[in-house]
Known about the structure:
With 93 residues, this protein is mainly α. Helix content is 48%, strand content 11%. Strands 1-2-3 form a 3-stranded parallel β-sheet, with helices on both faces.
Amino acid sequence: ARVAVFPSRLEGCGIGPLEALRAGCPTAVSDIPAHREVAGPGAARFEVGDVDGLLDAVDRALAAPPPAAEPRTWDSAADAWFEMAVAASRGDQ
């Protein structure tokens, strides 16, 4: 994908943004607790319901240098997701 956008108003876990960032996809997320926890500074944020802010966040996500994507197996993807989820639950960035 060229960019992943998550305009959620409510999210329980934020696995979509977590997976997008881990895959090296530029990501824009609504500024809600679940997205702040899993995306950290890696995603461009916008306020819920702010269409202009969403468009600006997409532009910022596309302009940012992409994180390095790594080839994945199912096992390595599960391990990476688990490590990121544990780090996010501790507040690590």
